Amino acid sequence: MLVAAISDTHLPRGARRLPEACLERLRAADLILHAGDLVALSVLEELRALGPPVHAIHGNADHPEAREALPKELVVEAGGVRIGMAHVPGPAAGREERLAKRFPGCGAVVYGHTHIPQVELSGGVWILNPGSPTERRRAPAHTMLLLEIEAGEIRPQLLVVDP
After folding, report:
1. 101: Cβ contacts below 8 Å, ≥ 6 apart
2. Do the Cβ atoms of 72 and 57 come closer than 8 Å?
3. Closest-CA residue to 46 (of 61, 32, 58, 63)
4. Nearest to 29 by CA among 55, 7, 3
5. pLDDT digits 0-9 by tens, 42-69
6. Residue 114, exposed/middle/buried by CB under 10 A (0-12, 13-18, 19+)?
7. Do residues 55 and 30 lie in contact, with contact meaning Cβ atoms separated by under 8 Å?
8. What is the tens place of the pLDDT at every residue in 18-42?
9. How many CA atoms lie within 13 A of 8 on its CB side?
10. Dihedral, 36, 160, 129, 157 alpha carbons, nearest 10
11. Whole-model pTM?
């Protein structure tokens, strides 16, 4: 199973859109995860139109209708593993341990908010931030994650999707 994860798209904003490299990978995935700050619910509809099922949570910058329609946190089953989703991870100090405890029984936790990508195995749990495909802020590039899941094993890959 192939899971594509994005976060912090902050759309729509002017002429900004998801980079084609990101769209290609989203279309090819079996499942799409969005870890918050879509901003408008129309973005969720655009993601759903790509084909794969979409699971999303709301972030701190989402419009009120998105905040009402989407959960703050979520646990998704994918390829026989559980993936926790949260937008705001809290302070950097102790983040990995705190997120793993927040989602017991999960093989991975996908979070957003910081726009800084992270791919780290901590205590047997993958702590993952896809960064942002549209608004890199202090990150070196626009990024997303692919998670290949097979036989209960998660193999995450961070991808640069600069326009």
Report:
1. none
2. yes
3. 32
4. 3
5. 999 999 999 999 999 999 999 999 999 9
6. buried
7. no
8. 999 999 999 999 999 999 999 999 9
9. 25
10. 120
11. 0.97
Residue 94: both structure tokens together = 């102790």
The pairing of beta strand 2-6 with beta strand 31-34 = parallel
Bond from prior residue into 12 cis (ω within 30 degrees of 0): yes
Listed residue (39, 34, 36) closest to 58, CA to CA:
36
The label of the residue with tokens 């209708």 reads: 65
- What gap in Å lies between CA 153 and CA 157, rounded to an integer? 13
- Write down the number of H helices and E strands in the chain: 4, 10
Joined tokens for residue 104? 């017991």
| pLDDT for 155 | 98
pLDDT band at 14, cuts 50/70/90? confident
pLDDT at 141 over 80: yes
What the block records as the tokens of 12 is 């729509």
Domains of the chain plus CATH, in order, are 2-160 (3.60.21.10)
Give the Å distances, CA to CA, from 65 to 14, 16, 39, 81, 112.
20, 21, 9, 30, 19
